[in-house]
Amino acid sequence: MTSNPVTVTAAYRVVPGREADFHSWGWAMLGASAQQPGFLGGGVLVDGEAEWHVVYRFTSDGTARAWEDSTTKGEWDERALGIARQTDRRSVPGSKAWFDSQSPAPRTPAPPSKWKLWFVNMSAVFPPVLLFNLIALPYLGGLNPIVRTLLLCLCVTALVTWILMPRLQRFFKKWLYPPLQALRGRHKRRTA
């Protein structure tokens, strides 16, 4: 093995329903590339459900290029035409650099839209304010309006902060943060 191997990854968009065919094609193509001088190994990977990757390593950029420019590789590319379409190709010297370049930085989920926050806040604030006005206000009618308002704010804020908002945020989590659910893998998977 030389000190400067090259890792190549080719990304493909697979025709729905043809995933098994692409998987077989990818491994068969790697079997053919294993016959070439300088081949170090490879694999077929799936990135979620969207992209498939064929990854292979050669001892140098020259041996990788020789494989990619060969008629054998061209024939294998023609066999994939009805199965998948290549969307990207990367060639990186060494293996650590390739894996470092493929790990995306974690994305911070976008905050929910303002109208969704308004809806959840109204769902948390309106019921205790209504109950306070219907149940407690008749008994507090003789109090100073400032004291009455202070009691309303203290009671409603406590209920909203410690009881209602945590429950409503859990209940509406998928609606408020759908990209976060997808990132965590809690979304429904498509059936192929």
Describe the overall structure:
- This protein is of the alpha+beta class and about 190 residues long.
- It has two domains: about 5-100, Alpha-Beta Plaits (2-Layer Sandwich); about 115-185, no CATH class.
- About 50% of the residues lie in helices and about 20% in strands.
- Strands 2-3-1-4 form a four-stranded antiparallel β-sheet.
- A hairpin with a 3-residue loop joins strand 2 and strand 3.
- Helix 1 packs antiparallel against helix 3 (about 70-80) and helix 5 (about 115-135) crosses helix 6 (about 145-170).
- About 15% of the residues are buried.
- Mean pLDDT is about 80; it is low at about 180-190.
Which structural category fits the helices and strands? alpha+beta
Count the helices. How many? 8
Low-confidence runs of at least 5 consecutive residues? 181-192
CATH class of the largest domain: Alpha Beta
Question: What is the average of the pLDDT values?
Answer: 80
Please describe the biggest sheet, giving its number of strands, its sense, and whether it closes into a barrel. Answer: 4 strands, antiparallel
- Strand proportion, as a percent range, falls in 15-25%
Order of helices and strands: EHEEHHEHHHHH
Going across the major beta sheet, what is the strand order? 2-3-1-4
CATH-defined fold name of the largest domain = Alpha-Beta Plaits
Helical percent range? 40-55%
Task: Using the CA coordinates, give the radius of gyration.
Answer: 29 Å
CATH architectural type of the largest domain: 2-Layer Sandwich
State the total count of DSSP E strands.
Answer: 4
Q: Between the first and last Cα atoms, what is the distance in angstroms?
A: 40 Å
Shape: rod-shaped
Number of domains: 2
